[in-house]
Amino acid sequence: MAAINEFELIDRFFRRPSQSAVLGIGDDAALVQSTPGHEIALSVDMLVAGRHFFEDVDPESLGYKALAVNLSDMAAMGAKPRWALLAGALPHVESDWLAAFARGFFALADDHGVELIGGDTTRGPLTLCVTIIGEVPRGKALTRGGASPGDAIWLSGPLGDAALALACHSRRVELTASEFESCERALLRPNPRVALGERLRGVASAAIDISDGLTGDLGHVLEASRVGATIQLAAIPRSAVLGARMHGARRAVAIDALLAGGDDYELCFTAPAARTADVESVGRELRLDLASIGVVTSGTALRVEDEAGQALERLPRAFDHFADY
Ligand code: ADP
Ligand code: MG
Questions:
Q1: 109 lines ligand 1 (CB under 6 A)
Q2: How far, in whole angstroms, is CA 286 from its chain's centroid?
Q3: Which helix (H) or strand (E) segment is 193 a member of?
Q4: DSSP of 148-191, one letter per residue?
Q5: What is the 185 CA–ligand 2 centroid distance (Å)?
Q6: Which of these ranges, 46-50, 60-64, 321-325, has the smallest mean pLDDT?
Q7: Centroid of ligand 2 to alpha carbon of 288 (angstroms)
Q8: pTM (2 decimals)?
């Protein structure tokens, strides 16, 4: 496949008829028309081989996930994702790999009505960088800064399975083949909670998506809102696979995965107690098992209570790319 050049590659794998952009792929910049009365939400995420994914990962899953992590950021802002830009460094051009990558990317993009309007392509160590552009009605974005004491803390779904898949890779936990398969699915195919984010506008007081682990990400909300929180370990939703390891020899690994495992992409949000019925009705409407896991407190501490109501003495650290372990 040495014969294909950069522009043929873009045309063949990434250029599609324009949907909603004024001008899509092919010029020096794309042009889009923003919706009156809305603010633009922008975010970029980079995935580096060997750091965020295994170099030999299934390319279709990688294409899916490169976009999913960005959609999750839009969800956390209550924004509707509209357009994406894709920058990629590829060690070599392999058309089966690119076709599978594009299939995964566009399947998710189509599900959410997101149009790929540009990017950049270069040779280099495998790295993918997606920029997402969304819209949110003026003044209605969900931020990290709006939580108040007394608000309930909610999660959109189970945590920890993606981390368990990684723990299995590094032999810190043993999983059966079918357990590994379901955990790996959580790792490779996270479900960005875009519809939930949009429905939470005007209901949630603050929101974040769980990309680096619950305690760290909830910690960002607490810091931005200048509040504390008490959450119950037992209330944190988990899969049967993780639940089976909460008691016994692997409890520490399971607690780590639940509290500090990254790559979950569920939403963690706060809402005033008076809005509980609204949150529950959004959950029913979207068929999501929204779980109330604790309450926002005054002060700044995060307290995690175990099954017996005792505070955990040590909270596992959230993932930090620059922490020296
Ligand atoms: P420039 O030299 O102006 O940066 P390029 O030659 O890099 O333009 O890209 C040509 C066109 O193809 C641009 O519209 C750019 O946005 C688009 N493009 C390049 N790489 C990708 C990609 N991986 N996915 C989508 N669009 C891309
Ligand atoms: Mg370029």
A1: no
A2: 18
A3: none
A4: -TT-EEEESS--SHHHHHHHHHTTSS---HHHHHHHHHHHHS--
A5: 33
A6: 321-325
A7: 41
A8: 0.94
Sign of the Cα pseudo-torsion (219, 225, 231, 233, in order): negative
Binding site membership of 29 for ligand 1 (Cβ less than 6 Å): no
H-state helical runs in the chain: 6-9, 59-77, 95-111, 161-169, 177-188, 194-199, 214-225, 240-243, 251-260, 276-286
**How far, in Å, CA of 149 to CA of 105, rounded?**
40
For ligand 1, whether the C-beta of 116 sits within 6 Å is yes
- Tell me if residue 240 falls in helix, strand or coil: helix
Burial call 217-230: b when 16+ CB within 10 Å, e when fewer:
bbbbbbeebebbbb
Question: How far away, in angstroms, is 71 Cα from ligand 2 center?
Answer: 23
Q: Is 270 in the pocket of ligand 1 (CB under 6 A)?
A: no
CB of 78 shorter than 6 A to ligand 1: no
User: What are 245-303's pLDDT values in tens digits?
Assistant: 999 989 999 999 999 998 999 999 999 999 999 999 999 999 999 999 999 999 999 99
- Nearest-5° angle of CA 52, CA 25, CA 33? 100
Nearest to 153 by CA among 81, 225, 212, 211: 225
Cα dihedral value 244, 248, 251, 252, nearest 10? -160
User: Is 279 in contact with 213 (CB distance < 8 Å)?
Assistant: no
**Rounded CA gap, 78 and 195, in Å?**
8
